[in-house]
Amino acid sequence: MSASERAAGARSWLFIPGDSEKKLAKGIGTAADILLIDLEDAVAESAKPAARATVAEFLRAHRDQRDRLWVRINPLQSGLALHDLAAIVAAGPGGVMLPKPRGRADVELLDHYLTALEVAAGEAPGTIAVIIVATETPQGMLATGSYEGVPRLAAMTWGAEDIATAIGAIANRDANGAYEFPYQLARTLCLVGAAAAGVPAIETIHGDFRDEAGLEQVANDVRRAGFRGMLAIHPAQVEIINRAFTPSDAEVAAAREIVDLFAANPGIGTIGHKGEMLDLPHLNRAKAVLARVGAA
Question: Which Gene Ontology terms cover its molecular function (predicted)?
Answer without folding.
Answer: lyase activity; magnesium ion binding
